[in-house]
Records
---
Amino acid sequence: CPSTRQHFAREYDCYGDSYFTDTDLNQLKEVFSAMKNPG
Amino acid sequence: MERKVSRICFASEPDIIHFLQIAWERTLGSGFLITLTDGQSAWTGTVSESEISQEADDMAMEKEKYVDELRKALASGGGPADVYKFDFSKESCHFSFEKTLKDVSFRLGSFNLEKIESPAEVIKKLICDCLDTIAENQAKNEHLQKENERLLRDWNDVQGRFEKCVSAKEALETDLYKRFILVLNEKKAKIRSLHKLLNEVQEPERNIGHER
Amino acid sequence: MERKVSRICFASEPDIIHFLQIAWERTLGSGFLITLTDGQSAWTGTVSESEISQEADDMAMEKEKYVDELRKALASGGGPADVYKFDFSKESCHFSFEKTLKDVSFRLGSFNLEKIESPAEVIKKLICDCLDTIAENQAKNEHLQKENERLLRDWNDVQGRFEKCVSAKEALETDLYKRFILVLNEKKAKIRSLHKLLNEVQEPERNIGHER
């Protein structure tokens, strides 16, 4: 729903990486692997 | 000139070893020289290309196939003992050989030879040919051995570089991720502090709004 | 048993080739058999370990060094023509050999041989030994050739994998940087938007402050 979408848009970037929570090796690998082939 | 020496026994003297040397220039089918010796006497003969063709025709065999049979019988170390049979008459100097297939023997060829007056020279020539072949083979083997050692060294070298590349690739990935994480977390800390500041600034305004 | 056949010429008959076969069990220094033939006649002899030791002592040479000289002279194809000289007396059946060094010749050894009654058998045995050596060398040659081909295939394989790894490493670096830049730029965009918001919120406050 729009409010959930809004919540996630505030918390995460369009690649699924959190704006606020520090990342670690596993999380960053997960973010990178979910990304489509970058141009 | 190609030469091949084989050990053969004759059907008439199965326990006595004889040596048969075949020598040819371009191909066996273009004609060859035969030398036969029992270590004491020696006989030689020549077989021409036309004689070979004639023999093949007589046997209704393709010339290539016939030459192949000649090679197996005369220039391959005598061939399997039960396949090719040889015979020689010292009186008539007639040499013949046949092939046995499934208990059926058929004549493969025959030549007339001439007895050599001075067999010692022919025998010496045959031994010299053997020694030359031994020397050639040894030189070839040494060359192949060196080649193999070189290839093994090259393989070890490339394998080492491959393993280093694999390690370097893994190290690169680890290193990049470490750097990325540091930089990203710096940015996130900045975002958190800006967000906190924004909340602090926006809080009194919200209170004022409530009071109003 | 190890065997070696060499072509030699005697000082007394420099144009006539003879064949010298040396055969030994464990090492040359533990004793050996000699066979000499001119393709017609044959002579044999035995040299024992003690005779070899005695000869070395007589020459004030270390046994190992003497055996090495024997190997070079008798079992290495006759050695360089101008280094080792051989001689044989058919009357006394005495075989001797010497080494020439810087125009100085010194006796290296000598043996008494016995003439063989039936030289044909000895000659046949010598030819058989040559053929066996040829067959062994050819088998070794084929084995080395196969090894050579295998090593070349292995080298090509690992070289291919190494090249792929180098390309993959470069591609990995490029790819990770691309992804990192995208994620990092998202954080920077967020920071910029927070800065902008903060400025917007703080601007009216600064104006109010000015008014007061």
---
Amino acid sequence: IIGDEYRWPTVIPYVLEDDLEINAKGVILKAFEQYRLKSCIDFKPWSGEANYISIFKGSGCFSSVGNRRVGKQRLSIGTNCDRIATIEHEFLHALGFWHEQSRADRDDYVRIMWDHISDGREHNFNTYNDTTSSSLGVPYDYGSMMHYSKNAFRNGTEPTIVTKIPAFSDVIGQRMEFSDSDLLKLNRLYNCTQGSTFLDSCDFERENICGMIQGPGDEQDWTREMKATGGPDTDYSNLGKCNGSGYFMHFNTGTANTGDTALLESRLLYPKRGYQCLQFFYYNSAGTSDKLKIHVREYNSTNPNGTLRFIKTIDSAPERLWQLHHVSLDVKTKFRVVFEGSKEGTGTTEGGGLSLDDINISETTCPEFVWRVKNFSELMTTTPTEKPIYSPPFTSKEGYSFQMQLFPNGVESNPGEIAVYANLVALEGETGQIWPCPWKQMTMMLMDQNPHIQKRMNNQRSVTTDPNRKITETDNFFWDDPRKVGPEVTAPDGLKYFQGPRAGTPVYLTHLRARSRDFIKNGDAIFLLSMEDVSHLTESQPTPATTVHPVTTPSSNNNCSSVECLNDGVCVMDEGIPSCRCVVGKDWWYYGDRCERKGSLMDKTILALASSLSVLGVMLVITIISVICVKKKYKNRDSGGVISNTYA
Amino acid sequence: LPTGKITDHDVDGGQDLDIFDINEAAGLDLFEGDIVLDERQARNS
């Protein structure tokens, strides 16, 4: 939408209203994290700002377009809207974006099938001219998450939108993640130069290796390779598919001496949050005792040359496979990430070593668990419908175990789509949990294995354990102890455990979309799983209605602590002076220094009517007086004169 | 795994509902399916 008045500040105040589902609250926070990672848009809990977004559970998913500057601007995340892409879509509206299909140049790219649109819904296919709406110089984007789906507003079974390039007919309407163009537009509109929580990404395709350096004090170097003797045969970014590209970094332990080390250090990074996630792909073709260790080199005023701090050893046996690893960091000052390869075994051989590719560093939390599904591409075609694959049980920080059930070829109700479910698990010897399991959010994310973390369009769904939910037609709680509500099962490796009821979706992802992008690489899919405690989200967030003095600075007299705004008004500092911002409704408003007076459209009408009648009354009185006076004047003249015929 | 049939919970009622389907099912007739207009915008549209 064109107009600076519709822009938000880059840090947007928000309120999560109490009526939101707990799962929705958790997913909203995840959507905020994607904005922070991929743009400069940040979100902060409301603390008295004049304008803010209040997210509530309405009867659907909806938003206004742009900052309407109405104080509390509402955005609804209702039932069935608690999907990350839906939430991102509604927030893109709030940030000032219309749907992609309403662009001025829309008809150059899609054909609107007017005959297939439900009666009365045609107006939804209007376009805006480029004086109202700008596409910011970004080409029409079939992959935008702001696009209608092809069947939107249809009256039968035929699509309402047909793409002029047929290959995109099933691409439009994706609700996975921001497309590259969505981000380009967002970042252009808000003048973003970098993601708030993004630090670095490197696929080693360029010779400058992203500014990484060979560390001091080592005996060997990491080298940039396309292939290494003893493996790997290709890089991970391109899998060797492109001539002249496909590089990775390699430390050849085969030719190194026992005790030799090789340090590879990232460029200098400047953290803001104090916690980071390092993610990389690692190929270990070295000896069983050779090691990869992760350190950080931290810089501060007392250590201007940096101090090396050990984080962890990557525990991974040699395998002919690029493995995904995550390392959580907690750095608060300027730093570098340091990869230390060390040759611990004896003897030299011709090949083998440690290799690194697709490194990403961001100020986000790491996913807790990685589940790699080998040959997933094949499993999608060969697995019968209704046949699940089970992940191993994973145990969260709070001691609850869970697993994921994956149906590569869907379930009965939706064959040919990928279905996913999560269930609680009780392993032998597990004790100390509270049952029914209270408010744990399980997230199942199919990773888009694009080398660059900001370009990934991961597909994810979350389910949350509601301790009050009951199993239909029984008195048992759905998320109760699996020993009580589930059968005992035995895994192929002999592990016995109890398996609770499952929650998830039979429409997680279509096969077509699963085969797109980099969801499957080298035939394998990678699921990133987590179980997070979201019980804190059951508590209310302070809102204008519950907060009388939202902004207080005790040390100053000239602040909001001395101002009381009535009728849910909000005190804000306006150029250093505290002033009240009053609540405004559709046809009413509060006003006055302390929002003590109420106005409404009806008041205005009455006032206008009263004024008109008063003026009419005054005019009537003046007219009557004038008439009387004139009459009187002529009457006096008649009675005083003698009329006679003076010429007679 | 030899599991017995246990109760499932399908989020979204097991349907792949898009934003526009959800709002239509809720009886909403919003501008372009999910946009709330203020008075001025509604007049223009």
